[in-house]
UniProtKB/TrEMBL annotation:
Pfam families registered for this protein in UniProt: Recep_L_domain (PF01030)
Top-level taxon of the source organism: Eukaryota
Organism: Caenorhabditis tropicalis
Protein name: Recep_L_domain domain-containing protein
Receptor L-domain domain mapped to chain residues: 59-148, 240-335
Length: 398
């Protein structure tokens, strides 16, 4: 074996030989070169059904599926049979599709702990009208693009799932979206906390990761104080909350309570500040993440606050949005339009990724800046016109 490898190395004359740590990956079916894939542990079909169950490597804890594993409309097995076939599979290398199936959950995959699609394959759970929860409760590391859409889901029940880079691939962006599940569909704050753990994971590739956040349960096990603004007003909210669940509305009469938000770091919902007499947003000095999944609403909307002359979100780092213009300031004090740094500071916090998605009275930062320059110019020319008039008057009167 070693001799074969060395010989292969000699032939390829590539840089690969210098670097034994770099895995060699067959572009089309990398599973065949993956040292984690043992012979006898391959599923060399794609749809799992009665006719293929005999070739499924039931005893392997790591199963490699170069042609993907499909549980679909053709899967003529019942939940009990699937559970039995899949019970030893802890690690899947290859894509997984649970697609157009008849099942009410994917609990037959409850023992599955990791899925590695080399970052480019997918974990798709889609078009299962009867599926009310996913229920893959052991699943943690997923190195796939994830799409969970158009099911009858009201819960994910995937409490451990997080997206991590594949140890055998170092390219491509991981992303995740869930959409068009049932009207009552909700994701827990713990689930979203896992999804957003890595800054690299894209959660709104098409701006359509939508749903609601589930009400906090007794079992909420987050390390920091987590409160529910969906059920109480700001007036009745506890102090010291670090995470908030629910859309946060700050309106007339709330001014005296905003100090309670000084500890807020992550908002699992959107932020709307409207018709207040607040003069600044300094009380949101620690706000880092605003993860809105509420359909058709901006992530941050600040409007009709006539006295608001300074806005800053110095800790802001990440937003999740369901609309094109995710951050909107409209009809606040004129001062906000007279200094483009309010707008640019927000872009800068968000790594300049929201250039077209942050607007002050409809203008992107650059246009806010340009209209100030224009105002200065027109002031300038008014001044020089004035000078001319003065000179002419002086001439006439002398
Ligand atoms: C070999 O791998 C190491 C670490 O993985 C890396 O720093 C180095 O640049 C690689 N060398 C070549 C020739 O690819
Ligand atoms: C799986 O393991 C069981 C018991 O360990 C054994 O009886 C069975 O033959 C094995 N099946 C295959 C396909 O290897
Ligand atoms: C999951 O990913 C993390 C981070 O990449 C890694 O440290 C951990 O060992 C992985 N766990 C498993 C079971 O693969
Ligand atoms: C992937 O590549 C990036 C830069 O190209 C490097 O910083 C990182 O350490 C690499 N990760 C792995 C797991 O090789
Ligand atoms: C939450 O806790 C309360 C009181 O401790 C209890 O009555 C209630 O049943 C619990 N709810 C759940 C869902 O565990
Ligand atoms: C701001 O509004 C609150 C109630 O909405 C009011 O009590 C307070 O006097 C107002 N402050 C100013 C400076 O207008
Ligand atoms: C806005 O408020 C922040 C924080 O108090 C301050 O650092 C900044 O200088 C203010 N900006 C302006 C233009 O007044
Ligand atoms: C955003 O762009 C500005 C201006 O081009 C630049 O000064 C700043 O460093 C950039 N910030 C980040 C985080 O890339
Ligand atoms: C809000 O601002 C827009 C232009 O930015 C203006 O057309 C509109 O009349 C304003 N609305 C109110 C209620 O002042």
């Amino acid at each position: 074996m070693l001799r074969f490898l060395l010989f292969g190395c000699f032939l390829t004359i590539g840089l690969k030989c210098d670097n034994q740590t770099e895995p060699l990956i067959d572009d089309e079916y990398p599973e065949y070169n993956d040292p984690r894939c043992l012979s006898g542990c391959f599923f060399e079909s794609n749809i799992l059904q009665v006719s293929t169950m005999k070739i499924f490597p039931t005893n392997c804890s790591t199963v490699c599926a170069p042609y993907s594993l499909h549980i679909s409309i053709e899967t003529d097995l019942n939940e009990k049979q699937l559970t039995n076939i899949l019970k030893n599979m802890k690690h899947l290398i290859g894509s997984l599709y649970v697609f157009r199936s008849k099942f009410t959950s994917a609990k037959f995959l409850a023992n599955l702990e990791t899925i590695d699609c080399y970052n480019i394959g997918t974990l798709t759970i889609s078009l299962n009208p009867k599926m009310i929860e996913v229920g893959m409760t052991s699943l943690s590391n997923v190195s796939c693009r994830v799409d969970i859409s158009a099911n009858g889901l009201y819960r994910l029940n995937m409490p451990k799932m997080k997206l991590v880079q594949s140890p055998y691939a170092n390219y491509s962006t991981l992303d995740l979206e869930f959409m068009s599940n049932s009207d009552d569909f909700c994701v827990t704050v713990e689930e979203m906390s896992n999804f957003m753990e890595s800054r690299e994971v894209v959660l709104d590739r098409f701006g359509r990761t939508t749903g609601k956040y589930c009400e906090l349960s007794n079992t909420t096990n987050l390390p920091q104080k987590t409160c529910d603004i969906g059920k109480v007003s700001l007036e009745n909210l506890d102090s010291g909350c670090v995470n908030l669940r629910g859309d946060l509305l700050i309106e007339e009469g709330d001014e005296e309570h905003v100090h309670k938000l000084e500890t807020l770091e992550t908002l699992f919902g959107n932020l709307h500040i409207t018709k207040t007499n607040l003069t600044n947003t300094n009380f949101l000095g620690k706000l880092k993440n605003v993860m809105s999944i509420t359909e058709d609403q901006p992530t941050i909307l600040v409007d009709f606050n006539e006295l608001l002359t300074n806005v800053s979100f110095p800790s802001l780092n990440r937003i999740l949005s369901t609309v094109h213009v995710s951050i909107q300031f409209n009809n606040n004090s004129k001062e906000l339009l007279q200094n483009p740094s309010f707008c640019y500071n927000i872009l800068n916090s968000l790594n300049n990724q929201t250039t077209y998605r942050t607007r002050f009275d409809g203008k992107v930062c650059e246009d806010v800046e340009k209209s100030i320059v224009k105002d200065d110019k027109s002031k300038g020319s008014a001044f020089s016109n004035g000078l001319w008039v003065l000179m002419i008057l002086t001439l006439v009167f002398v």
